[in-house]
Amino acid sequence: MDSELNKSFIIKRVLEYGLWNDWLLIKQEYGIQTITNETKTFRELDPKALAFISSISDVPKENFRCYTTKQLTGQHWNF
């Protein structure tokens, strides 16, 4: 797997399923700014991962695409 071609895939998987050591590796490889810029383009992201990257990068959740997309999607009716 190429680390530059598959950058967004790697970042998303580490944010959602990775351990602390995995986070340290991608932080060292890409840097916080690059990780934040890639994460802003994701359509969906786990709420915990979104809260983590938002607090680490000091960027409000509202600036992430997955946050606004989630609000636009309506819930199913509960009968």
Question: Overall mean pLDDT score?
Answer: 87
User: How many beta-strand elements?
Assistant: 0
Order of helices and strands: HHHHH
Q: Main beta sheet: strand number and arrangement?
A: none
Shape: globular
Helix proportion range? 55-70%
- Cα Rg: 14 Å
Q: Given the structure, what is the number of helices?
A: 5
C-alpha end-to-end distance: 46 Å
Low-pLDDT windows of residues: none
Structural class: mainly alpha
Strand content: under 5%
Descriptors:
globular, mainly alpha, 79 residues
In short:
This protein has 79 residues and is mainly α.
Structure description:
- The protein is an all-alpha fold.
- Helix content is about 60%, strand content about 0%.
- It contains 5 helices and no strands.
- The chain has helices at about 5-15, 20-30, 30-40, 45-55, 65-70.
- Helix 3 packs across helix 4 (about 45-55).
- It is globular, with a radius of gyration of 14 Å.
- The mean pLDDT is about 85.
